[in-house]
Amino acid sequence: MSSRTELTFCRICEATCGLRATIEEGRVVAIEPDRDHVVTKGYSCIKGLRYHEIHHSPDRLRVPLKRVGDRFEEISWEKALEEIGAKVRQLVNEHGGDSVSAYLGNPISFSLLPPVLIAAFLQGLGSRNLFQTGSQDCNNKFAAAERLYGFPFIQPFADIDRSQCLIIVGSNPAVSRSSFMQLPDPIRRLRAIEGRGGKVFNVNPRRTETAKQLGTQVFIRPDTDIYFLLSFLHEVFVRDAVARERVSRHMKGLETLRTVAEAWPAERSAEVTGIPAETLRSMVDAYLEADGAAIFLSTGVNQGSHGTLAFWIQETINAVTGNLDRLGGTIVGHGFIEDFPKQARKGGHTMRKDLSRIGQLPSVADTFPAGLMADEILTPGEGQVRALFCLSGNPLLTVPNSNGRLEKALQSLELLVVIDIFRNETANHAHYILPGSSALQRPDLPFVFQSLMGVQPVPYVQFTDALLPLEDQQRDETMILLQLARACGSTLFGSRVASGFFNAWSSLGDLPGIGRRVGLTPERLLGLMARAFRVGSLRGLRKSPHGRLLAPHKGDDFLGRRVVTDDGLVDLAPDEFVVAARELENAFEAERAQRGKLKLISKRETHSHNSWMHNFPRFVEGKRSTNYLYMNPEDGGRVGVESGAMVEVRSSVASVRLPVQLTDEMMVGAVALPHGWGHQAADGLTVASQTSGVNVNLLAADGPDELEYFSGMAKLNGIWVEVVAV
């Protein structure tokens, strides 16, 4: 039996852990961590180590499918592209480019080329309507960064390997591996902070898997993080702990920011956060006394009512205390392209200033909120969405209020094209389903966040070849998007030069004798990008199969040099944010008035990842075949239930039923429900469809009035709910 071992890296999350795959007779039979990887050093989570079993699932899509009546039939690629192209051309001619839209999902977002090309495809049609998962989990950070630093992809991150104090708010690195920061082996690296005498605080409504292993637990009532952060900033000003020389040279708006914080002493925020004033002040003590400190918030805060304001205040705390742009504090990476933010801002890339047709919400990083998809499809008028290309996503499960208006909207589309590896809930409504590739079938460089944002505490680069060939009629998403662009008449990036280049290069592949040697392939495109990134050729990168370390961070190289606002100064008090902060009084009073009501948060699970990992038998066997509502025993006593009992969770939008688990991991007044479940209607997922979990996002509201204005994000955390025994 022939057997070989190949090195690659995982593309499930930002951690991109190094892996070793054992391949026998064309199948990956085992995956283990790459112990010689330059950064991950033998670490990987269970999801990455089992990815091959997802790849080899008998449910994988292998041929293009077309809906005929109430069933799907096989169709050739040539015919599918021809029919899709004809319909798109018709819609664009009759209704304009905005009649065509796309949704970019996960996990394809963790590969380099497809996210770039789906945007280029829409731009070439004259469409603004790109929706993506960021409006479910992270757009607040883009919206805030654009106003503070001049560009959405400038994202400071904690210099975790030198920090002396880290305050983690609404994040659980032990399971998520963090976000907007490449953090493999998080527990070892967080423990190292304590090992060198530093402190770690976990601010969360739940005692997370991270908090169980290290740090100090600080319970906070869901969706009150903005008040905690404002009080933290208030304490910084009260103690006159401002790095005045640094702030005066590189920042503006300090005095306005001071007036924003004045109204929020620790005693006041304690009324709604549940964090005693003395506890908050002890955290400020630790932060200010540390030789390098950072506050870091993530998804749990992002998905609340005030995610953008919370990220703004976090950044200002790190900035005014002198921790921004210093080793041990927060670092701004360089990425692979020198001065990328400056160049991109100058070219207007990801800097659109337009508003959505429905609700007049601002675009964020050139995308519109997924929470508006149903409205954009169902509301007649100029610019109404009539076609949707869904790339590696499942909005019918991940977008709020999806089983109601969004399902109706998808059914009303004149064209729905799904590009995926499985026929999921969204694909069941498609007119065409195109079979894509798994990560094991794609060559790749680190994804956009690492290559362009440089969110790596330890900078490095790595290339992976495809480990396995495409099967049957599967195609790499890069080639699918290029072929769709040609069929639909899209001038990629809105540039005839770019489209002509790709079309000419594609045509070389048809030349007899030399086509295979010079034709357009994803690997050759990545080779061009590697050279553009100045990380060398693919041949050179292959000589470093465990990754190649890049220049380490130096600190003190962002302020005064790479801030790209008009005046080159960090804006500590953007006018829009200041106005919004002064309007928090009504929200604060609503919190005070409903302190006795339960609030719901989402939860990430060790053996799950968003909506696409429940089709693997080992991950959903036994007690893991459903999700549970996690509740403090004191709250359970009030409801009159014990662990295992069925409960109904009711929000203002909908209700779901599922079993409850009582645990003191939850603070009193907060309940948690893992997301990504609810596959009962997905007959294309033979394992997942047999699970009994429920979709937490059904409890969240969609529509323009329910989304946070600055980011367009749905409120998926901090939902007021009622729990009753069934």
Polypeptide structure, described:
The protein has 4 domains: about 5-55, Phosphorylase Kinase, domain 1 (2-Layer Sandwich), CATH 3.30.200.210; about 65-125 and about 370-455 and about 460-535, 3-Layer(aba) Sandwich (Rossmann fold); about 155-335, 3-Layer(aba) Sandwich (Dimethylsulfoxide Reductase, domain 2), CATH 3.40.228; about 595-725, Beta Barrel (Barwin-like endoglucanases). Helices cover about 35% and strands about 15% of the residues. The protein contains 28 helices and 26 strands. Strands 5-4-17-16-15-6-7 form a 7-stranded mixed β-sheet. Strands 21-25-22-24-23-26 form a 6-stranded mixed β-barrel. A hairpin with a 2-residue loop joins strand 2 and strand 3 (about 25-35).
Task: Please supply descriptive tags for the structure shown above.
4 domains; 16% strand; 28 helices; Phosphorylase Kinase, domain 1; seven-stranded mixed β-sheet; six-stranded mixed barrel; Dimethylsulfoxide Reductase, domain 2; alpha/beta; Rossmann fold; 726 residues
Topology:
Layout: E1 3-9, E2 18-24, E3 27-33, H1 46-49, H2 51-55, E4 65-68, E5 71-74, H3 77-95, E6 100-104, H4 113-125, E7 130-132, H5 134-137, H6 139-149, E8 157-158, E9 165-169, H7 173-176, H8 186-195, E10 199-203, E11 216-218, H9 225-238, H10 244-250, E12 251-252, H11 254-262, H12 266-273, H13 277-289, E13 293-297, H14 299-302, H15 307-320, E14 330-331, H16 340-347, H17 373-378, E15 387-391, H18 395-398, H19 402-412, E16 415-420, E17 432-435, H20 448-453, E18 460-461, H21 477-488, H22 496-508, H23 515-518, H24 522-532, H25 538-542, E19 548-549, E20 570-571, H26 575-582, H27 585-593, E21 598-603, E22 629-631, H28 633-639, E23 646-650, E24 655-662, E25 670-674, E26 719-725
Parallel strand pairs: 6-7, 6-15, 9-10, 9-13, 10-11, 12-20, 15-16, 16-17, 21-25, 22-24
Antiparallel strand pairs: 1-2, 2-3, 4-5, 4-17, 8-14, 18-19, 21-26, 22-25, 23-24, 23-26
